[in-house]
Specification:
This protein has about 260 residues and is mainly β. The protein has one domain (about 5-260): Beta Barrel (Outer membrane phospholipase (ompla), Chain C). The protein has helices at about 5-15, 90-95, 220-225, and strands at about 25-40, 50-60, 65-75, 80-90, 105-115, 120-125, 130-135, 140-150, 165-180, 180-195, 195, 205, 205-210, 215, 230-240, 250-260. Strands 1, 2, 3, 4, 5, 6, 7, 8, 9, 10, 13, 14, 15 and 16 form a 14-stranded antiparallel beta sheet that branches. The longest helix is centred in the N-terminal third of the chain and has 12 residues, at about 5-15.
Length: about 260
């Protein structure tokens, strides 16, 4: 199967079409996002370019858990690339019909994930555990602990170097709040991926990627329809971006979100 076919399958997962039918969902949210900012280009002598990123993102909940996925299409230096992720969480609390957790942990889930990049021909599998945290004021706050298993094709097939397996921590959440009559939210994630070695025996350093968004509910103010049109910014901090020890990115991007 070609990498493009892999990514098409991933986009289907990102839309939640591999989940139960829409009639069986407890809730469902699909968004179109546009971001624009100057992003660094790793392995390019600290070069950067104004980059547009279009994202199709989907999340839903069903009887036994929840799903989350997205696919990014980005253009920088005239090149179009695609990257996607999908995560399916099986909630032990939902399956058992009883609280499964302790202290600040209100639920435990079994997590399966996949990451795929088209141009770099990268494919990763991320099985692990999700700890859903009881955080007052948050719509949700999760700590994901997963393996980071590489199934990429490597340099011989025109892709990025194949890597050894590693592990990941990811803290993700959303916190709505109001200032007067205006509605805002802070949402996003911070991930840490441990170091590993590539097919040439070279060390790929650990990376930290943080992508918090601040959103303002513009639709609520314009036509009285909350949770439909948002504007704001996304701050991206990426230490050792894409495994490049010489690239630490710090970028602010304009953000527009249309919720379908």
């Amino acid at each position: 199967m070609s990498r493009l076919a892999h990514l098409r399958l991933l986009s289907i997962a990102a839309l939640g079409l591999i989940a139960p039918s829409a009639q069986a969902l407890d809730w469902s949210t699909t968004e179109l996002q546009w971001q624009r900012g100057r992003l660094d280009l790793p392995y390019s002598a600290n070069a950067s370019a104004q980059t547009s990123v279009w994202t199709l993102q989907h999340a839903d909940g069903w009887k036994y858990g929840d799903n989350f996925g997205f696919i990014d299409f980005s253009r920088g230096h005239g090149e179009l690339d695609a990257y996607g992720e999908y995560y399916g969480n099986f909630s032990l609390g939902k399956i058992r019909g009883a609280k499964t957790g302790w202290g600040p942990v209100k639920d435990i889930g079994l997590l399966v994930g996949v990451n795929a990049a088209e141009d770099a021909k990268v494919l990763k599998y991320l099985p692990g555990v999700r700890l859903s945290l009881d955080a007052p004021g948050f719509a949700f706050l999760n700590l994901d602990i997963t393996a980071y298993i590489d199934d990429s094709r490597g340099v011989r097939h025109g892709g990025a170097p194949k890597e050894g397996n590693s592990w990941m921590l990811d803290l993700n959440g959303a916190r709505p709040f109001k200032l007067g009559k205006a509605s805002f939210s802070i949402e996003g994630h911070v991930e840490y991926v441990a170091s590993r070695r590539n097919e040439f025996g070279q060390r790929t350093p650990a990376h930290v990627l943080a992508q918090p968004q601040i959103r303002y509910d513009l639709g609520e103010q314009l036509w009285g329809r909350p949770n439909q049109l948002f504007v704001g910014v996304e701050y991206q901090y990426w230490r050792n971006k894409l495994g490049d020890a010489d690239t630490d990115e710090s970028a602010v991007q304009a953000l527009v979100v249309w919720r379908l």
